[in-house]
Amino acid sequence: MTDIADTLLAFSEKLADISRAMILQAAREAMRIDLKQDDSFVTATDRAVETRLREEIGAAFPDHGILGEEHGSERLDAEFVWVLDPIDGTAAWIAGIPVYGTLIAVARAGRPLTGVIDLPATAERLTGISGRGAWHDGKPIRCRAGTTLADAYMTSSNPRFIPEADRAPFARLDGAVRFTQYGGSCYGYACLARGRTDLAVDAGFDAYDLFAPTAIIEGAGGIVTDWQGDPLDIHWRGCVVAAGDRPLHEHALTRLGR
């Protein structure tokens, strides 16, 4: 498993090189913006990046499955499935706020194995192998441990993403932590993996939003589950709570009403 994880992560970084170059080039050009059925933004660049990454994966690993935000899924029952979000934080990308990134993960048997968060605007990259290690620009990183709930620094992407039914539990947790920073997109999960924050909590997400951050956070010693404490799988959609260590994670789950 070590050899295949290393191989998949190395190839993921090659894909991240491609996506970064495409995104930086597109940032210098006129942007075409559309709305999806759920009223979220999508651009021609989102679609073009995912198309290119899928072509590269198909040529190198024809037996692998793929799940992408823009172009759907294929062979989700394969042992290895690539999970892609070409631009996580498209609204931030449109506005020029430098917290967007490309998420590239590989799932094995439906669970996150390897992950890359590539951040073109800041020229940063986080990589990880679940349960084994995580790196920021090639240097090892660890989640921050030992923080109490009352002292915890939490991030959440956007309160508008939280469905009505989940807002009261979220508000209980929000009221219990020291501070909540909103709007960080995938950068918030990168900060958790680097030990800069303590919790990341969101709702209304899909597997392609979380598989890459999950592999990295789990590689950095953290924990990621849904609000019931169950691990994420390839078919997951819903609420997520990520924490720097298990005691803080348990306290967060209690506030969320598990």
TrEMBL record:
<protein>
    <submittedName>
        <fullName>Inositol monophosphatase family protein</fullName>
    </submittedName>
</protein>
<dbReference type="InterPro" id="IPR000760">
    <property type="entry name" value="Inositol_monophosphatase-like"/>
</dbReference>
<comment type="similarity">
    <text>Belongs to the inositol monophosphatase superfamily.</text>
</comment>
<dbReference type="Pfam" id="PF00459">
    <property type="entry name" value="Inositol_P"/>
</dbReference>
